[in-house]
Amino acid sequence: MNDVKHVSVPDGLFQTHRWSILLGLLVSLILLDGFEDRLPFADQVALWGLSFLFLGVVGATERNTALRLLMSIPVFAWFVLLIMSESLDVHVDGSLSGLAAVLLFGSMIISFRQLIGPVHSEYERLSSGIFGYLLIAMLWGLIYWRIEVMHPGSFNLPEDVAGHRAPFVYFSMITMTTVGYGEITPAASLPRILTGLQAIVGTMFVAIFIGRIVGRLK
Fold first, then answer.
1. Where are the alpha helices (DSSP H) in the chain?
2. In this protein, which residues make up the domain named Potassium channel (predicted)?
3. Residue 150 to residue 144: CA distance in whole angstroms
4. Could you tell me the pTM of the whole model?
C-alpha cells in the first residue's frame, strides 16, 4: 500500500469527524426538502440548516488561509440577509438564492481539496468526497429552480410539483447519475445545456473520486 499522509487535528468531535458530521447534515437537509409541501416550517428549518452547514464548512477549512477568509465573507452576508428576512420581513429570496449558490460552490471546492490533500483519516476523505458529490446535485438543483422561477416553462413539469424546489433537486440527482426517468425534462436551450454539462461533471467526478480512493489503496 502507498503511505498515506495524515494531518494532526485538535481533539474534539467536530474536528475529528467534521466531514462525516457535515455529510449527515447535508443528507438531512436533502431529505427535509421532500417535506416542503407538507410541513409549513420546512423552509425555515432548511434555511437555518444551511446556515449551520456553511458555518461548519468554514470551520472545516484550514485555518489562516485565504480560502477560509473568502468563505467567511459570504457566510456573514448570508446571516445578515437571513436576519433581515426573518426579523424585518424584507423580501430577499433572490439574494439568498444567489448567495446560497456561491456558498454551495465554495463548499464544493473546499470538500474537493480533501481528495488531494493530506487528511487525518481516509474515512474523512471518503465523507468529504460524498459531501462534494451531493453538493453538486444541490447546486445544480438550485440553479434549475431559479431558472424556472424567473422563466416559467423552462422545464416540462408535472402539475403537482410546480413552484417547489425539491423536484429540481431530485431532477438534478437523476441527471447527474444519468438515470433520466423523464417525468421532468428541460424545455429551453439553457437548461438543456446545463443538464448535459451536469451529466458530464457527475460522470467525471465519480471516475476521479473512485480512481483517487482506489489509487490510495494500492
1. 13-33, 42-60, 66-87, 93-116, 122-150, 166-176, 189-217
2. 168-215
3. 10
4. 0.83
Q: What's the angle, vertex CA 97, arms to CA 91 and CA 102, rounded to 5? A: 135
Assign 154 to helix, strand or coil. coil
Kindly state the DSSP code that residue 161 receives in the 8-state scheme.
G
Q: How many CB atoms neighbour CB 67 within 10 A?
A: 14
Write the CB contacts of 157 (distance below 8 Å, at least 6 apart in sequence).
Answer: 148, 167, 184
Among candidate residues 31, 80, 33, 75, the one with its CA nearest the CA of residue 53: 75
Domains, the chain, ranges and CATH? 13-217 (1.10.287.70)
Q: Which amino acid is at 182?
A: G
Residue 139 in contact with residue 111, Cβ under 8 Å? no
Q: How far apart are CA 205 and CA 209, in angstroms?
A: 6
Contact 131, 23 (CB under 8 A): yes
- Per-residue confidence in pLDDT tens, the chain, 218 aa: 444 444 444 456 666 788 889 999 999 998 888 787 777 777 888 888 999 999 999 888 877 678 888 889 999 999 988 888 877 777 777 788 889 999 999 998 888 887 776 666 777 888 888 999 999 999 999 999 999 989 999 999 888 776 788 889 999 999 998 888 888 999 999 999 999 999 999 888 888 877 777 666 55
